[in-house]
Amino acid sequence: MSWNKTSFLLLLLSAHSAWAINDSPHFPIKPVRWVVPYPAGGSIDVVARLVASRLSNLWGQSIVIDNRLGAGGRIGTQAVIAASADGYTQLMTLNTNYTMDKSLFKNIGYDPEKALQPICLIASTAQMLVASHNFSVKTVKDLVSLAKSQPNSIHYGSSGAGGSLHLAMELFKSMADIKMNHIPYKGGPIALTDLMSGQIKVMFFNTPAALPYIQSGKIVALGISTAKRSPRLPDVPTIAEAGQSVGLSGFDIAAWFGLSVPQGTDKKIIKNLSQQILQILARSELKDQLSLVGAEVVGLNPEQTTQRIHKETAQWAKLIEHTNIRFE
Q1: pLDDT per position as a tens digit, 211-221
Q2: Where in the sequence is the domain holding 286, given as residue range(s)?
């Protein structure tokens, strides 16, 4: 056998091995990193860890949760966009980073719809309008009345400027025609600490993370953001019903959690990942666990998730233009 023929055979063997590593049935052959661009203990982190533990068991490979904080989720999002498109770095984040940021920021530096490829829309949750336990306001109507009588006197918190918690309150303020003072934080759990101490008075917080604090009496639930009450907190009214007389009829928003990879990732990997996650989400045990923390399984495939992103991006763009909320 000549040196050239041997080299050729070795080249073929090398190419076959590379194909085998990259072919989706063999994925993953090493740990996978899920970038969660929000703090540990928040709703997205809770949901991510519940799903990741089951997917990790299916694979026989670990999923490392990387809480990459800052800029309302945009720092973590950019880290994933810049990563290799090999499937091993994935973004687990909120709808805000897919559907709101593009309209909110003049120079975001990337287009989420072009830079990311959805794998699956995993679950959704209502947002709770919550107040400090020592705040005099105990109802949605009372909050609006106080804000009208004392414009900009009430400090409210959020997980960061332009995040889902901020936009929820901006919609609330717009519909109720009130003014309050925004205090942005580097994540919802950090804002929650100041809410419990009374340094801020109100905020929106995703239900999975808010539940234990509401149930322990550390914070007070004023209303829920969706059109239906939560089965976990049936006595808490919807904002639409509680605020019907103060301009909030029809208030209905939800946060959802989606998984994506950098654009250019092998479509076979994306398809297999989506099928595996949808299979896991169909298990009653996981549905029950997510329900216990206030999240509801959605389970949309890549095409359905893309359609949802397109639709919601257009809806939020209208609100952002109407409220004139823009950032550099």
Answers
A1: 899 999 999 99
A2: 33-123+257-317
